[in-house]
Amino acid sequence: MSTLLIRSGHVTSLDESIGEIPDGDVLIDGDTITAVGRGLEAPGARVVDAAGKIVIPGLVDAHRHVWQSAISDETSTEDCLGTLLAELPDRYGPEDVYAGVLWGALRAIDSGVTTVADWSHIVTTPAHADENVRALCDSGIRALFLYGPPIGGDVMKWFVDSTMRHPADVRRVRSELLGDDTARVTMGLALRGPEFSTPGVTAADFRLARELDVPISIRSGLPAYLGRSRTIETLDRLGLLGPDVHHAHGARFSAADLKRIAATGGSIVACPTADVSMGRATGTDRFPITGRAVANGLLPALGTDMAADETLGLSGEMRRALSSERERAISVASTHGETPVHLTARDSLRFATVAGAEALGLGDRIGTISPGKRADLAIVDGPMVPWRDPASVVLESRAADVDTVIIDGAVVKHAGRLTGSAAHQAWLLQEASRRRLSAWTGLVSA
What we know:
Layout: E1 3-12, E2 20-29, E3 32-37, E4 46-49, E5 53-57, E6 59-64, H1 77-91, H2 94-110, E7 113-120, H3 126-139, E8 142-147, H4 156-159, H5 170-176, E9 185-191, H6 199-212, E10 216-220, H7 223-229, H8 231-237, E11 245-249, H9 255-263, E12 267-270, H10 272-277, H11 290-295, E13 301-302, H12 313-336, H13 345-359, E14 377-381, H14 390-395, E15 402-407, E16 410-414, E17 417-418, H15 422-437
């Protein structure tokens, strides 16, 4: 394990006890941050020059279906619900899962994401699950592998008042592959919850997750299902809410729902682009949940959801959350008489770092640049202007602006390029997968 010194960057630590350090240094010993300050000395250390750049905690994508990252960016909502979720999984072999997840994880790293919550519903066989985990491990990203319900075969039996219990294979993966909760890739369960399964199945699935002692993620608060399932009321009645549960989307949760999630220690993960473009946020609540979550005592995390739909990465979600909330502030003040929530670029950056880490149960390890935490950082290039918050520069960034990415103390991107041979290998594997799948679907060009 080597010593690494990040020198002379504008350190945006997001740690309240450290704050902002212009011309600051970060010292890394092995996989751990050991010091943050100015003028740090480390004879023999590898030095990364960050002068004129912004050093931030690695971004946390708290809800992403990583296997879908390699699918066409032009996928429509109808294609998503039809081809992607009903037809494609039956033709997606374990080798396609490996190729897609490796490619997707590397794309995330390239854009400054160091941690991803992989809500995996391509686990149609144990071999599919194994290849998903292997790809996450091989990519170098920090990941929470959320073992979901399989969507191959008769997808409706898993998502319409389902009486199917969560796959028993999760026990094998927990005991054989992901039993170490201090490792870079750890395990959770992606559960359907009351909006997609019966209350009895929901209770059984939650018991399974807690028996395995893993975090729980559910997609909830969706317009088409919330009124019928009364998600938070049902979970509360069953005694299932708690700090180990995070809710992805939550677009139509009421203030009472949000307050109850906050009171029980749970969290919300907004996916601004998907929530708006796929009709999850409608009517007076047509905006992402971010502002209303803040107003009701929650610090929302952010996710990209279907990366196939969004090519701007998590910085794009940060921008979308901020711009949507500014639009909502005008709307609610002028038409609904509500008190608007005013968010800043710094708030949005906290959503994509601190809040993401907390939502995934990793707040003690990542999310801020703090001594004792894991060395997950990104260095972003951009125009530094005295009167601008550096966080706004991060929000405006693209993958090309991310100069360096460090995960667990390992430099996985430097001088604007991914390191090692994984990127080229991922391209070759993804090309082979594309050719296999192109014979039957127009979604993948020949």
